[in-house]
From TrEMBL, chain A:
Family: Belongs to the ABC transporter superfamily.
Record keywords: ATP-binding, Cell inner membrane, Cell membrane, Membrane, Nucleotide-binding, Translocase, Transport
GO function terms (MF aspect): ATP binding
SMART domains: AAA
Protein name: ATP-binding cassette domain-containing protein
A Pfam match: ABC_tran
Source organism of the structure: Microvirga puerhi
SUPFAM superfamilies in the cross-refs: P-loop containing nucleoside triphosphate hydrolases
InterPro entries linked to this entry: AAA+_ATPase, ABC_SmlMolc_Importer, ABC_transporter-like_ATP-bd, ABC_transporter-like_CS, P-loop_NTPase
Gene3D superfamilies for this protein: P-loop containing nucleotide triphosphate hydrolases
PROSITE patterns: ABC_TRANSPORTER_1, ABC_TRANSPORTER_2
Ranges where the ABC transporter domain occurs: 2-230
Automatic annotation (TrEMBL), chain B:
Name this polypeptide is given: ABC transporter permease subunit
Family recorded in the similarity comment: Belongs to the binding-protein-dependent transport system permease family.
Domain ABC transmembrane type-1 residue range list: 48-253, 321-516
Stored InterPro entries: MetI-like, MetI-like_sf
Matching Gene3D superfamilies: MetI-like (1.10.3720.10)
Length: 232, 524
């Protein structure tokens, strides 16, 4: 279980204060208006933002003193996930070994992971030769192959068209069930994940406004009126 | 076939090409026809070998020091870093004649280094003339420029990739391999060719620090042919050869320059994870210390002139200052007007006329001007207009014209992209509203172009203000610019007065460059 207790971050023009628990093996969607603090929450979990106070624990272990590379967290961003000078296979392999000196077994694992995301035949291609959806699948493959039990996805599919976005979310759901990982994903359109997420959190003004099932959060979003209404 | 609509910028481009062509033709016609490239074979071979070797070595050293400085600056935060970056950003306008003075003041026979060694009991003598002086001056002028450009490139690495590197636990070597090197590699070919081109065409530095006729670049050889030997045909042939070499290099530059798209995800300066590596801390300290010891004294040498300014406050100074400012203002205005006209023509042909090839050809003209040797062009134009214009005034006419043409490529790079941007953003809207001519210029183009135009004017005026090029042909008691006055004082070994003049030139050029930089970074 991931537990966040009163983690507070302050900037001159913005204050965030999070308290939240996420169960092992679930898909937790993080929704909310732009600038509301979704990315800050994810970056805090991944180790890129440090709270002034509070506790962040995973399976009882305090994550706050750990640098990002030692946390049990792999991250996928909206853009710039891949290194353009490396091939697809090399980009995935970075999740196993940043030195890229792979054993035969590790190389096989990389190809199997590419197979799992439907890109087995793209292993030698460069990211520049692929579509946006394919690039995000490569990034997802790298996050999964790292073996870290928490996968943080920071609006990973926002730039994709609605159909492709839903396909990608289904792929994430399938893979996380197979590998038994916990996925925390920020989203723009809560409806996209309503049928796959077990938990949804609505973040407004740096605070958890609603936490519960997707149905509950979606109905709250619409009850709150147009200012908090999600956009597609 | 549809007739292509002629734009004012087309006429401007034709006029520039015709002016350059007429200059060369008149130079070749006035020559006796006896001189060919073959007849000056051994001399030419020596000049070419020297030009290529000094430019190659200068490029290697400038890139080496510049890239090392950029990496060290990217990794380190320290007090005064902003001031240092400002200095790096304005070294492009350091006049070459001031760089010559700085090298002599620090490394010359009676320079700071020699005096320090003498005070330690050393009895030998230092000679800076030849390769050492030329290389030091070129590296002094170019390494900071390389550092600034590569540092800008390193800062374009997207924030997400830095976070990924942190998350994946990259080592310092892996950070260099996957983040720094791809960013550097995008800039390196273009930078290497640009620095090579600048050093290959070097004039004032080689003339003053070459140490004799055996060390001449093509530009110096053209100057000597015109000023010393009055061999116009030789000058013309050498000029054509230089144009050919520079065009080949410039075309290569046009082809290889590429940069990954800029990232827009920065919220603030990224803390590099490799900054904590103690081995890199030591390496960066050594690099920054070396950079400081190499660049610092050269930059500071001019400040010594502060005390000598009262000694040079005379009519010569006021006259030279006014002449320099006038020439700089006219050259800057000319460069900006030409850039505006050509930029508008390129936009017109690319978008309204859908003639991308013609637009690309026009687009090449400003860059191609970098290849034209100013001495040959000036001499040709001098011979062309001499029958009609008072010879005492020819210099005053040709100086701003040739300086303006020389500064056109820089002005064009500031102005043309903004004109295109205005079209991309508001072109269709303007068309739909029926906005044309002056109304469109006032409402659509001017708001977007005024800042880059002012910025380009300040930069080109700064470049012209400090230029010690063709004034070497026309300079004398009747026509003096500040750089020429500095050259005279250096020749007369009046170093204190030279340092004061260098300080004035540098101050004005830096102020103009600062204005240009602030305008170019200001928001619309």
């Amino acid at each position: 279980m991931l537990t966040i207790e009163n983690c507070r971050l302050t900037w001159p023009d913005f204050t965030a204060d999070y308290s939240l628990t996420i169960d092992e093996g679930t898909l937790c969607a993080v929704a909310g208006p732009s600038g509301g603090g979704k990315t800050t929450l994810l970056h805090m979990i991944a180790g890129f933002e440090t709270p002034e106070c509070g506790r962040l624990t995973y399976r009882g272990r305090n994550l706050l003193p750990l640098p990002p590379s030692q946390r049990p967290v792999a991250i996928v961003f909206q853009d710039h996930n891949l290194f353009p000078h490396l091939s697809v296979a090399e980009n995935v392999a970075l999740g196993l070994r940043p030195s890229l000196r792979l054993s035969a077994a590790e190389m096989t694992a990389v190809l199997e992971m590419l197979d799992a995301v439907g890109l087995r035949s793209y292993d030698r291609r460069k990211p520049g030769d692929m579509s946006g959806g394919q690039r995000q699948r490569v990034a997802l493959a790298r996050a999964l192959i790292s073996g870290r039990p928490l996968i943080v996805l920071d609006e990973p599919f926002s730039s994709l068209d609605p159909q492709l976005r839903r396909d990608m979310i289904r792929l994430v759901d399938t893979l996380r069930r197979k590998r038994n990982v916990t996925v925390i994903m920020s989203i723009h359109t809560p409806e996209d994940v309503a049928d796959v997420a077990e938990q949804m959190v609505l973040i407004i003004d740096g605070k958890v406004a609603v936490n519960g099932s997707p149905a509950k959060v979606v109905s709250c979003i619409y009850d709150r009126g147009s200012s908090a209404k999600p956009t597609s | 076939m549809r007739l292509r609509q002629l734009h004012l910028g087309d006429a401007t481009t034709f006029a520039i090409v015709a002016l350059v062509a007429c200059g060369f033709v008149s130079l070749l016609r006035i020559g006796d026809g006896g001189t060919t490239l073959i007849s000056i074979g051994p001399y030419l071979q020596r000049v070419l070998i020297f030009s290529f070797v000094q430019a190659g070595l200068s490029t290697l050293l400038s890139l080496g020091l510049g890239i090392a400085l950029a990496l060290a600056l990217a990794r380190r935060q320290f007090p005064g870093k902003e001031a240092l970056l400002t200095f790096l950003g304005t070294t492009m306008v350091i006049p070459t004649i001031v760089a010559v003075f700085a090298v002599l003041a620090v490394y010359g026979r009676n320079g700071w280094v020699a005096q320090s060694l003498k005070s330690l009991g050393w009895t030998g003598s230092i000679s800076i003339f030849g390769y050492p002086g030329i290389l030091i001056a070129h590296v002094f002028l170019n390494a900071p420029f390389v550092a600034k450009v590569t540092l800008d490139g390193l800062n374009l690495v997207p924030a997400e990739q830095w976070r990924l590197a942190t998350s994946l636990g990259f080592s310092s070597g892996q950070i260099f391999r996957h983040l720094d090197w791809p960013a550097l590699r995008a800039d390196l070919p273009g930078l290497a060719i640009l620095v090579f081109l600048l050093c290959f065409k070097s004039f004032a530095i080689v003339l003053a620090l070459g140490g004799g006729p055996s060390r001449a670049t093509l530009e110096v050889a053209i100057y000597e042919a015109l000023k010393v030997d009055l061999d116009f045909a030789r000058a013309a042939w050498l000029a054509l050869l230089q144009v050919a070499i520079c065009v080949i290099i410039a075309l290569a530059l046009h082809g290889v320059v590429s940069r990954p798209p800029a990232a827009t995800t920065f919220r603030g300066p990224m803390q590099r994870v490799d900054a904590a590596d103690y081995r890199l801390k030591i390496l960066d300290s050594v690099i920054l210390l070396f950079g400081l010891l190499f660049l610092g004294p050269l930059a500071l040498s001019v400040l010594v002139g502060l005390g000598s300014i009262p000694d040079i406050l005379d009519l010569d100074l006021v006259g030279a200052l006014m002449t320099s400012l006038t020439i700089a203002a006219i050259a800057g205005s000319l460069a900006c007007s030409l850039a505006l006209a050509i930029g508008a023509a390129v936009r017109h042909h690319r978008i309204a006329q859908a003639s991308p090839r013609w637009a690309a050809l026009l687009d090449l003209v400003p860059s191609a001007l970098l290849a034209i040797p100013p001495f040959a062009l000036t001499a040709g134009l001098f011979l062309l207009i001499r029958p009609w214009i008072d010879q005492a005034r020819i210099g005053l006419i040709l100086l701003p014209v040739v300086n303006g043409l020389g500064a056109l490529p820089f002005a064009y790079r500031y102005i043309a992209p903004r004109l295109m941007q205005a079209e991309e953003r508001y072109g269709r809207l303007s068309e739909s509203l029926g906005m044309r001519g002056l109304a469109r210029l006032k409402i659509v183009d001017w708001p977007m172009v005024q800042r880059p135009l002012a910025s380009a004017f300040a930069l080109t005026a700064a470049l012209s203000f400090g230029d010690f090029g063709i004034i070497a042909l026309f300079g004398g008691p009747k026509l003096r610019t500040l750089p020429y006055l500095l050259y005279e004082r250096l020749g007369a070994y009046r170093f204190e007065e030279a340092s004061a003049l260098g300080l004035i030139i540098l101050t004005v050029a830096f102020l103009l460059a600062q204005v240009s930089s602030r305008l170019s970074h200001a928001h619309d």
